[in-house]
Design a protein that fits this description.
heterodimer; A: alpha/beta; Peroxisomal Thiolase, Chain A, domain 1; 2 domains; ten-stranded mixed sheet; B: mainly beta; OB fold (Dihydrolipoamide Acetyltransferase, E2P); three-stranded antiparallel sheet; 1 helix; globular; binds zinc ion
Chain lengths: ~375, ~140
């Protein structure tokens, strides 16, 4: 069954210390329904992605609260958690509900409120995305995990610090044009290398910021009849990978990403070369290098050099990666990120993006959770 | 003064691992059915789902696969320790372990460096394996 993205929306990403997880979700959900031209009473099911609501705010029954907040007190509402991939997984469930004929209209929302909590509590919470009972005893942090990844990539492929920093320079440059992004200032390679060390070899600007926000997408069986061109879901796949760090055989690749993308390309009947625009999970600079290689967008071991040469830069490369500015510019409200990516790709395919990739017909979103514990890959096409 | 370090609840699959560490043994599991080496300990084989697993003590020697030195403690409990280095060690037995590196200047850490295990009691009841540069 064909399934469409009928509408998307997101709040500004950044600091919303006065707003709670539910309010943010309701704001994004309402805006997405309005954008889709869908009446609330036509929504058949709701999926809500969130990571730290229970840990930081001690709030359960999130999905029901969100549904109630949207004026949908009786529809099935389900919360899903997959760390940073929570929203991608929520979208996948909305798509599946439509594909199997259980829903004609499914609403996927991702939401996260982090900045209202003290930073040490947030960082401790984020570490819940690791195998905490074992790996957690070392004092490794998430930047630390990606520090291990960066070191491994340097050792195996000779990827340099300057190349890794070039990812930040590109994404900050793209982010200048995104009115909803948290960071909209450009940085230079020297700025990145000169920022304070966090987890060697990564520095402050190599890391996506702690942020609040929500994003949503309306998925429908009926082809949207709004004036904007319709966007079809060609694939929305999910895979798991090792959740314990010592189980990862090769730290220069995330098997969850390769697995999900292999399924997605097959389902959509396309190859990486057919894509014009990609939003991928650059939670840290080096992650974009690994993601580009895992998704088959750039040759294995060569992504650092290719990104530095502009292969994925707007107006320079044949393919544009993270035209929104990515997580590095947009911010990373953990459970909302995957749907912010869908918001951007949908806009690109409709031709309405803030920084429009000319003639974009096929786009992809890649959302990665934990230390590669899960990944979703979604391919959208202009229908 | 740093708060108490995160102490895993000593139950489930990790219990034997940490109890053995307290006895000065770094253990992994060997599947008697498919010869898979398993780390951390699990209830069933990660390769063939067999329950026929035996604990094996490692000699505790290996080389560094990757490392990172943390300048910001993600956890407030480690605030007094920065900068500290976390390493992935490939043991000679073919098992990879994530652990803290001690007795080594962060500037001297290198991939491929030989390291050996030591055991540090975090509390009276909880001991973790750590690594240091090999004596030779
Ligand atoms: Zn086995």
């Amino acid at each position: 069954m064909n399934v469409y993205v009928a509408g998307t929306a997101m709040t500004t990403f950044g600091r919303h210390p006065e707003a709670n997880t539910v309010e943010l979700a309701v704001e994004a959900g309402r805006a997405a329904l309005e954008e889709a031209g869908v009446q609330p009473e036509d929504v058949d099911t709701v999926y809500v992605g969130n990571f730290l609501g229970q840990s930081l705010h001690h709030q359960g029954v999130l999905a029901s609260l969100v549904a109630r907040g949207l004026g949908l007190p009786f529809v099935p509402a389900t919360a899903v958690e997959g760390a940073c991939a929570s929203a991608g997984i929520a979208l996948r469930h909305a798509v599946m509900s439509c594909r199997v004929g259980d829903a004609r209209v499914a609403l996927a929302i991702g939401t996260e409120q982090l900045t209202a909590s003290p930073v040490p509590e947030v960082t401790r919470g984020l570490a819940e995305a690791m195998d905490r009972e074992t790996d957690g005893a070392t004092g490794l942090t998430f930047p630390g995990f990606f520090g291990l990844v960066a070191q491994a990539h340097e050792t195996r492929y000779g990827t340099t610090r300057e190349q890794t920093a070039s990812v930040v320079v590109k994404n900050r440059r793209h982010g200048r044009h995104n009115p909803l992004a948290m960071f909209r200032e450009e940085v230079t390679v020297d700025d990145v290398l000169g920022s304070r060390p966090i987890a060697d070899p990564l520095r402050l600007y190599d890391c996506s910021p702690i942020s609040d926000g929500a994003a949503a997408a309306v998925v429908t069986v009926d082809r949207p009849t709004t004036a904007q061109s319709a966007v079809e879901v060609l694939a929305c796949e999910q895979a798991s990978g090792p959740a314990s760090i010592s189980d990862i055989e090769d730290l220069t690749s995330f098997p969850a990403t390769t697995s999900a993308s292999t399924c997605a390309y097959a389902r959509a009947g396309i190859t990486a070369a057919d894509l014009q625009v990609v939003e991928l999970h650059d939670c840290f600079s080096v992650a974009e290098i690994v993601d580009c290689e895992d998704l088959g967008l750039l040759p294995r071991g060569e992504a650092g050099a290719a990104i530095t040469d502009g292969a994925t830069t707007f107006d320079v490369g044949k393919l544009v990666v993270n035209p929104s500015g990515g997580l590095l510019s947009r911010g990373h409200p953990v459970g909302a990120t995957g749907l912010a990516q869908i918001h951007e790709i949908t806009a690109q395919l409709r031709g309405t993006a803030a920084q429009q990739v000319e003639g974009a017909e096929l786009g992809m979103a890649h959302n990665l959770g934990g230390c590669g514990a899960s990944a979703t890959v979604t391919i959208l096409g202009r229908a | 003064m740093a708060a108490t370090k995160p102490i895993p609840t000593l139950r489930g699959e990790e219990k034997v691992y940490f109890e053995e560490a307290k006895n000065g043994r770094l253990v992994y599991q060997l599947c008697r059915d498919c010869a898979q080496r398993i780390f951390y300990p699990r209830t069933v084989c990660t390769n063939c789902m067999s329950e026929n697993l035996e604990y094996v003590a490692s000699a505790g020697k290996g080389t560094i696969y990757s490392f990172t030195t943390l300048h910001v403690p993600g956890h407030p409990e480690f605030a007094d320790d920065v900068p500290y280095t976390v390493v992935l060690v490939d043991l000679e037995e073919g098992v990879r372990v994530l652990a803290d590196l001690v007795d080594c200047d962060p500037d001297d850490v290198k991939v491929g460096m030989s390291v050996e295990v030591l055991f540090e009691a975090v509390t009276e009841d909880f001991t973790v394996p750590r690594f240091r540069p090999s004596a030779q």
